[in-house]
Specification:
Blueprint: H1 5-22, E1 26-29, E2 38-42, E3 45-52
Antiparallel strand pairs: 1-2, 2-3
């Protein structure tokens, strides 16, 4: 069964966010989505940030993920 693209995207974004937060990073979801899904900041060096776009694939069909672009 194939998941709709928006479900696959949301699932992958949530997994990426959880992983980044588990590393101690601060993750903000940008609204509106302007091609960048997350703004990520290291709390010990707030001057630098990473802009991350997440790409997802159907996890039931494809076991590997293409997360960061």
């Amino acid at each position: 069964m194939k998941l709709p693209q928006n479900e696959t995207g949301n699932l992958t974004e949530n997994r990426v966010k959880e992983k980044l937060e588990s590393l101690g990073l601060v993750v903000r979801k940008l609204v509106p989505d302007i091609g960048i899904d997350f703004l990520v900041v290291n709390p010990t060096n707030k001057d630098k940030c990473a802009r991350i776009q997440v790409k997802g694939r159907n996890p039931k069909l494809i076991k590997t993920y293409r997360w960061f672009q």
